[in-house]
Amino acid sequence: xxxxxxxxxxxxxxxxxxxxxxxxxxxxxxxxxxxxxxxxxxxxxxxxxxxxxxxxxxxxxxxxxxxxxxxxxxxxxxxxxxxxxxxxxxxxxxxxxxxxxxxxxxxxxxxxxxxxxxxxxxxxxxxxxxxxxxxxxxxxxxxxxxxxxxxxxxxxxxxxxxxxxxxxxxxxxxxxxxxxxxxxxxxxxxxxx
Length: 193
Prior knowledge:
The protein contains four helices and eleven strands. By secondary structure, the protein is an alpha+beta fold.
């Protein structure tokens, strides 16, 4: 598994209905994309808990060939043409777990990025994060959760899809507009090594 996300931060007065319409008319195009485990079409709107208007889809790839086909193909080029070329963040997958609400549509997502301190042993940090992911996956309302790491920056990524907005969950909160999950069953389960 490989996790990938780009964030398109939009002006404070941007009409987010444009993004909603974009996802409503184009989101289904990746519903059968080879190599894609899961794509969550995420937005957050300025005000309340978010300081920005943002479109920030997050991908979990079941195969690197799928990620490459997307990045070098017409899908990502559409983003580049409409918004400019965003920085693409990516993480090596560590774990994927379905939650108790796995069959329900995801309506909210929480992303939390956690640095691994220089003084921490990487394996110890990953083991602790994996245990946290397992506990989160057992929480009521969780559709799925994933754990990944960027070993260049030594940053852990916790990503959880929820059936509805969770009452208390640290991290960046997003609304889920659509989920494409053609190869969700190929993401593997639990730890990835």
